What we know:
The chain is α/β, with parallel strands linked by helices. It contains 4 helices and 5 strands, in the order E-H-E-H-E-H-E-H-E. It has helices at 16-28, 46-55, 70-78, 95-116, and strands at residues 4-8, 34-38, 61-67, 85-91, 122-124. It has a 5-stranded parallel sheet, with no helix packed on it.
Amino acid sequence: FILALKIQLANFLVSDELGKSFQFMLSSNQTLQCLEVISWRSPIPMKFLTAGLRENHTLQELEVHFTFSDDNLKDFFEATNNLKALTMTFDFRQESELALLYYEQIVPHVTNMLKRNQQMNILDF
């Protein structure tokens, strides 16, 4: 059984196929407790991780890097009910987007997630 997995995608361009593989891994592996995905060149699309998280009931810790996409953000946070630790970093298209999107999109979704998930111990974003 795999309990923890760290994946580094240093020089890979992340495609939809790779995203679907992550979704399948999360959906089918019900023993995985900790997942860390490091992707410097292009992050895993949020929609695939969200779909996999919805079906995974054992994952407790997730560290991931996203390209900011406000249309998938709410769904992602709603799928994190089992997590005890969540670390996220975001890519923004422009630095000027950072403050506005952070306060208008990310903070409200994080607040709602924390209201639903009483077992969250660590949150870093």
